[in-house]
Design a protein that fits this description.
4 copies of one chain form a homotetramer. The first copy, chain A, is built from 10 helices and 17 strands. Chain A is α/β, with parallel strands linked by helices and about 375 residues long. Chain A starts with a strand and ends with a strand. Chains A and D meet through strand 7, strand 8, strand 11, strand 12 and strand 14 of A and strand 7, strand 8, strand 11 and strand 12 of D. Strand 16 (about 300-305) of chain A pairs antiparallel with strand 16 of chain C, so a sheet runs across the interface.
């Protein structure tokens, strides 16, 4: 028989996509042992919190995240707040023995992430970071093919996340927390690049050293919409880096949110001794694969429509439909994975990203930023 | 204040996508005046009906569609049964004053569709046919651009729907109702081509005459999975036609479900005196547009990612996310449109497809099939 | 030892591409037994003829085509004149025992083409029609794959040739011989569609019956550049047709030179029981192939870059270079084929198009035009 | 009246593409003031030299390059030898007052390149390096658009050149001079990456600092075809780098010749404050442009087919033909530019690459290689 589990969500921005997925997961993966119930939502603006709660069916609303964390009915704390507000609620929730779900990146700096990891480990609770792209059919398929050795030994990874994040390319777009390092950690790197780095680790392996450079393209922005007064942006609009993986592969990372023309270009190309793989999020359900064959005359990249019943997760969706898998379903799959980890007491990794993954990711971001300042390669502590 | 409206669904195949959308619509379009409640589900196999009902939260299940239609709490009858079973339930429901939603095509032949249209009109109830692709951002945007005159006067329409419908290209795939004309009407034409014809009418206008040809590629199939005994397929696996629109444009239609390589290729290209548009469902969120410009040196097809807040429907979804709009959301938008038509007493057309559209569509299909037999152009009655 | 063979060219429009190829062929295919020498050029405007002759190294120029045909040093007559001027020079040249090369289409009507074929056959001279696309690596490869059975039995052919032929979409573009049926035969059909029909026959087989429709989009044009006086266009700007191949496959043809957005879109898709092939000339060196495989999870269209040494003709070019094979080289390959047919006394077909192919092609075009008038399928005489 | 100018070519490998272009340039650009004549060819293997000379019409052949350089009829020395053999012949030719054309990269190291530059400058002769991609319509168009400010201030450059150079991904492919640093300088970096760096400089500006990493994927290869004995490869199969341009833009370079799936992927993406541009050589005649527009609802990348008469160089070719511009024509345009520089005494730069460009390019390559060793950013001397 299905049991209910109470979910408390902090924040209603990306929190909307979470709430939608918490609502849908038990239907898509019916029957599940644990069925999530939206218990409480916390957020800054009262009116919005009320609206969102009504929309998604939350039982209670608060303006203070502590109230959610300490609410007895909340068994999973799902943290969608600005990055600077990741550690405190997660550490408090860990101490209370609750399951931890945290949006990416785990923290502003690796030191904070380490504290969160330690708290979670000490409390022996389940912990997961919201690297939802791991749960897309095309990307999970990529991992399966790599693990089966289809492209041989990996030699080269190209990862990027390039967007204009709606209107970040417009100097009139005002300040927001993402442009404040005290709240966000880094800029495009923390918001977008972190996803590409997670895929690097998920698909290729640990990164040993990096050399990076960063720039702020739009150096100041109006304090608020339409304001004359401007404020200095102190994070990167653009970060580039070269990487050395511990397994010998080389890699590059490119991330920017001021890239006119790109809408949501999270992409990777992975080359191995026997083939290669390509993906980009703007064509979410396509994976391009090249498998070295004896007959070079008929070899070429294949474009897979990763929507057939043979593909990861698709058994639960509408197979063979163009666009049958949308962005929102990555959250559904992710939460199914997390709920199953809890109900069956199975490890979240390596398919899901744990706080250890979140910490490793922060280490790489710190190293890139350090390298950009020191103009030297930075080796990452194992 | 929101009011509830009872929905009864007949059939659980495409009915799954409907149930999902009936459940999600009130969340996505919150707040709505009318909130659908899944009241009753009818289906052939008891065990499956039970499972589906539990999954989607239907209050009751029946094995007989009449029970659903006559259930007092059912105010909308949503017909997802095989085509041959479209007329009777819809006509009965009309007589009972219920709102009518019917999957495509409306009927096996235009004569049946006409009876359904007449019944609905006589009963003065709302009626809609499930041409859900009208409710995709890229396609609605195409219509808006055409209506604004962006591509001038339309001269040429190329429409196609080519798939392998999972495994229809495999001769071992057994008989199913789609292969039986007494149940389905036509083959690929009724199942897929009908969508392309609807887009022809939605985007270009009424079709005046057609010349067509049809073939059955896999002439017989096992009676059931693995059976030795075979049964003759009496519908088209492939239909091609040329069309003359009443406004002078010419067109082509190509549809097949035995097209190795194609997964879900519903496509159109529309040429006008001032530009052109291209779409295919395998890249669900892209619309390609060409606008004739004085400077031919910098003119070219633009690939729009139709996922920005400026695009139709996207205000209700996650904007600027690659794949932020999935196939299932077309049903959500469609049901929102239907529910609003009911709550605000507004016409379903021309944005939504009414039974009149369903009837016109059947007329064209009949004409194509007639033409294929007579080897002459067939003019369609106005 | 190489022997020279004298070439006389009639016309300097597409004649430029011919002259270039006659000059290059002996270098690209070095060593050849027969080396072409440009002996004489005929053309209407004296000044242009002189310029072209100097550019390409023709020994002599004439304003009258008869002078070229009867010039004793001319052993190959290469006819690049408007279509209405194809029969007379070719028939005269045949009687003089010269080798015949004629641009496409062979004639305005099949009856004329038949006379040309008969003359050539009677004179026992080599004859070839300029369907140069047969000599592109991607297209020859397509034929090889089909012949090896890679895509099984062919069921469906989609062919199109859509362009704006530079500025034909502009109503200010003045009359030219292509818009006069007395000179050209048909419009887009004769100029472009004929190529797609040739590929249909080259790749799929003989066409048995057609149903077509035609329209003239820009009904009148200035008599000359900038002229106020207009003249009626009496050919098709757009032709669509459905086709029945003698082997049971169905097909479509779409051709237009008023297609804003298309530059040079000669395309085909060929579906068989075991796979499919796609090509379009705007991506001249790519062939997309789908081969049905047991594992549907990793099957998809492969994009071949047909530029490797394993690919047809490429041994003579710069292999593995993006764009290593350009449009002009199709003429080089074509002339090599023709010269080898002469030097080694080998048949021009089935790789090259003979006057029989030219005649068959005209039959289909006549049938499409007849069908467009009669509104009935037209069966083609075998 | 046209004058002839004698050309002596050293080497017959890429020398074939040169010879072809020297032969064609006077036809394509007819009438030219200076018409090249192929006077002498030098090459290692006598039999091949003889064959090539006969094929392209060279008057004389030598096995020793000095003979070509000192041949009195040779006025242009075109150096297609392995990189290590670039300096000596060019310096000797400079002293003899001959015009200098040298394949890329100019030299193994910047110090050698500097000597060549100094010699050329001192002798006041014309000098050019074979960065032929500058002379492709799509790439020249990119430069024109950038110079007109169409994409605003450049912020980010992504350049790559990824191939398998036919079979370099195969460990059985034996040693050749490209794998020997004493002959080639670097590996993929010298052979391919140098082109991407040239485009970086041509399109964006001077590079100020780099951080790079290199790896050798196939560490040893058979000494000769099929040999058991293996030899160590001492150059990079893969080089990645991040770059800081002097104008503030950031950039990345990725180059490898062991990239299964890539045939000839020279690519760039350039982002500016107002738009972006994309190109890749596998689609040689396409340029993708994004121009920021007020209406985000209809903005998207445009795919230009750079084959119209409005596009650079195309007035000399067959306009509006798919594939009307092939790879070989870039050499034709390049030689036309060089010959015109000589005949009209005009500077080779900035459109053509001079020995100064060749030297700057070598500086960047040296800096990348140094950085890969030192694990620190290397600043380039101005």
């Amino acid at each position: 028989m299905a049991k209910e589990i109470g979910v408390g969500v902090l924040g209603y921005s990306i929190g909307r996509a979470h709430a939608h997925a918490w609502r849908d997961v038990a239907e898509v993966y019916y029957p599940m042992k644990l069925v999530p119930r939206l218990v409480a939502l916390a957020g800054r603006t009262k009116k919005v919190v009320k609206f969102e709660a009504a929309k998604y069916g939350y039982a209670k609303t608060y303006s203070d995240w502590e109230k959610v964390v300490t609410d007895e009915r909340v068994e999973i704390v799902d943290n969608c707040l600005p990055v600077a507000l990741h550690p405190a609620p997660m550490i408090m929730a860990a101490k209370l023995g609750k399951s931890l779900f945290c949006e990416k990146p785990l923290a502003r700096r690796a030191t904070d992430a380490k504290r969160m990891l330690d708290a979670a480990e000490k409390a022996k609770v389940k912990h997961m970071v919201g690297y939802n792209y791991r749960f897309m059919p095309a990307i999970t398929l990529a991992r399966q093919m790599i693990n089966k050795g289809k492209i041989g030994k990996i030699t080269f990874f190209r990862g990027s996340y390039l967007t204009t994040n709606s209107t970040y390319d417009d100097p009139k777009t005002p300040m927001r927390w993402q442009f404040e390092s005290s709240l966000s950690g880094y800029g495009a790197l923390s918001d977008l690049g972190t996803h590409a780095l997670d895929l690097a680790r998920y698909l290729v392996g640990e990164v040993g050293a990096v050399a990076g450079a960063q720039s702020t393209i739009i150096k100041e922005r109006p304090e608020t919409e339409g304001a004359r007064k401007k404020k200095r942006v102190n994070v990167d609009d653009l970060t580039v880096a070269t990487m050395k993986f511990r397994n010998g592969a080389l890699g590059t990372l490119e991330t920017s949110w001021v890239n006119p023309g790109r809408m949501d270009y999270l992409s990777f190309e992975i080359y191995g001794t026997e083939g290669s793989l390509r993906f980009n999020l703007e064509r979410i359900n396509e994976l391009e694969i090249f498998l070295s064959e004896r007959d070079r005359g008929t070899s070429g990249y294949r474009t897979l429509n990763v929507l057939a019943k043979e593909h990861p997760y698709m058994g639960k969706y509408w197979v063979n439909q163009g666009g049958g898998f949308g962005w929102d379903h990555s959250f559904v799959n992710e939460f199914h994975h997390f709920l199953t980890s809890i109900s069956d007491d199975r490890p979240v990794g390596p398919q899901g990203a744990t706080f250890l993954d979140g910490y490793r990711n922060c280490q790489i971001m710190d190293a890139i930023a350090d390298s950009a300042k020191s103009e030297a390669w930075v080796h990452i502590q194992e």
